[in-house]
Amino acid sequence: MIRDNEEYHLKTLLELLKNNYFFVNNFVTENLVVLLVDRMLNDPNQKQSNEFFEKKYLEIFRAFCICGDEVNSDNQVLILNKFIKKIAENPENSIFEIKLSKRKN
Fold first, then answer.
1. Which residue among 20, 35, 61, 96 has its CA within the 20 to 30 Å range from the CA of 84?
2. Is residue 98 assigned to a domain?
3. Is residue 22 part of a domain?
4. pLDDT digit string (tens) for 51-96?
């Protein structure tokens, strides 16, 4: 059934985002990114279906950042900041390991 098919939902969302400069530049908000980051890091199915889990969220984030031949660096920064902040808040529950080091000037 379409209603319960996450792969269908992903394909539909990605098709709507594909080269949609207007959406990417105007409707990707902090709230939307926080919602997706929370779901990505707290998805109860992530351990059972890691490949689909990673693909689902990473393709959405990629579509938020790359539209046609343009890169939306504001969306990149927003996603990275929210993603890293969320992991830093609760690193023991994260499936991701991020090592931050000071940048040399």
1. 20
2. no
3. yes
4. 666 677 888 899 999 988 899 999 999 998 888 887 777 766 555 5
Give the predicted TM-score (pTM) of the model: 0.70
Q: Which amino acid is at 77?
A: V
In contact, 57 and 39? CB cutoff 8 Å: yes
**Residues 94, 83 contacting (CB under 8 angstroms):** no
Give per-residue pLDDT as tens, 14-50.
Answer: 888 888 999 888 888 999 888 888 877 776 655 555 5
**Within a domain: 103:** no
Question: Is 17 part of a structural domain of the chain?
Answer: yes
Domain count, the chain: 1
Range of the domain at 62: 2-93
Q: d(Cα 64, Cα 80) in Å, to the nearest integer?
A: 12
